[in-house]
Amino acid sequence: MGLKADFLLTIMKLFDVYPLNDIEIVNGQGSLIWDSNGQEYLDMYGGHAVISIGHTNAHYVQRLTNQLNKIGFYSNFIKIPLQVQLAEKLGKISGREDYQLFLCNSGAEANENAFKLASFANKRKIIVSFTKAFHGRTSLAVSATDNPKIIAPVNQTPNVVFLPFGDVMALENYFAENGNRVSSVIVEGIQGVGGIQVAGDAFLQTIRKMCDAFGAYFIADSVQCGYGRTGKFYAHDYAQVNADIYTMAKGMGNGFPVAGISISPKLSPWYGMLGTTFGGNHLACAAALAVLEEMETNNLMQNALTVGNYLITELKKIPQVIEVRGRGLMIGIELPQELAHIKADLLFKEHIFTGEAKPNVIRLLPALNLSKAHADRFLTAFSKLLNN
Question: What pLDDT digit, counting tens, does each position of 196-235 carry?
């Protein structure tokens, strides 16, 4: 009896890696969500920039439902016309119609494939990354992330070099000495986890120049800052340069796990070069197509720019704020240490979800169709907390 009782008391637990707020979200509509007690919240974070067209968007739900009623999945050894439709739509909206699309499942996986693709092409090993960068939690992606705490011994490699973010001279000097060894340079158009740090035009243009001069590949990590969030499809587009590979995820599927890399025509594929089981499945493509269709139909990139510029302008008027950074609806609000409690107050007193970057930056990453009324609701609550 004792053995049986002990067995019955043993249950699997979740691997405890997330510090959780005691909130259970059960419903959502647009930029509003509700918890299990019926409390309404304004979602200014979109689950880490994932919700791009709003919770339970009607077109999105219908697109997925219709596809699920046909077939949800089959693997990549048969034709999947939805993949072709997605590539054509993505090429058109991003302005990269001559690029090629490889579909996968997450931002880290997209970056892993980008590194691999570049290294296959030039037979080199060195990856240049930058201070405060975040590129994922797997293998090379985490090795190219500037956070030693999450890099396990097995992920440590001499093949990743970190240079100061935004430092043109440091970049030029490194290439002058090591350029012939560099496989790729990876950079976020706007660093997210790094505190909403915008990559300057001259900096991105220098990366393009150095890659061209030395035969390296420019990887534009657009996992968080891409897909129209800044008012342009890729945040790097503000510098008027083309990367060789763009990596995408988060807002690409509005919550459905889908990611991809957009690949320059200078890079040629061969069978078996890259691969995935789940990437580009029928449901993932339906989700991604729904997002692009909503973006195109409702001009959501322009809305992100308009409402984002309004938020940035109004936030800069608040005297307690040290600095406001970002573009479009990717915004960082830096606060002094004595106001570090404001993020928690926004959640528990004003019922507004936001994100953070250490030490004291509030991150705003709402849906691209955020209304001005909801932007005003955030500004009113934020000002109220600061003035109290």
Answer: 999 999 999 999 999 999 999 999 999 999 999 999 999 9
Are β-strands 323-327 and 100-104 bridged in parallel, bridged antiparallel, or unpaired?
A: unpaired
Q: Report pTM.
A: 0.96
For 20-35, what is the mean pLDDT? 97
3-state secondary structure of 189: coil
The verdict on residue 19 lying in a domain is no
**212: enclosing H helix or E strand:** helix 201-214
Taking residue 198's Cβ as centre, other Cβ atoms within 10 Å add up to 20
Give the domain range for residue 116. 59-297
Helix (H, G, I), strand (E, B) or coil at 78: coil
Residues 324, 281 within the same domain: no
Same domain as 303, residue 286: no
CA distance 255 to 252: 8
**How many separate domains does the chain show?**
2
Same domain, 256 and 339: no
Q: Where do we find the tokens 């880490």?
A: 48
Q: How far is CA 53 from CA 106, 144, 169, in A?
A: 18, 30, 40
| Domain final residue, candidates 264, 297, 330 | 297
Please indicate, yes or no, whether residues 174 and 269 belong to a single structural domain of this protein. Answer: yes
Strands (E), the chain: 25-29, 32-35, 40-43, 100-104, 126-130, 160-163, 182-188, 190-191, 197-198, 217-221, 245-248, 259-263, 323-327, 330-334, 352-353, 355-357, 361-364
Per-residue pLDDT reduced to its tens digit, 76-123: 999 999 999 999 999 999 999 999 999 999 999 999 999 999 999 999
The answer to whether residue 53 sits within a structural domain is: no
pLDDT band of 2, cuts 50, 70, 90: low
Final residue of a domain: which of 272, 297, 322? 297
Domain-located, residue 101? yes
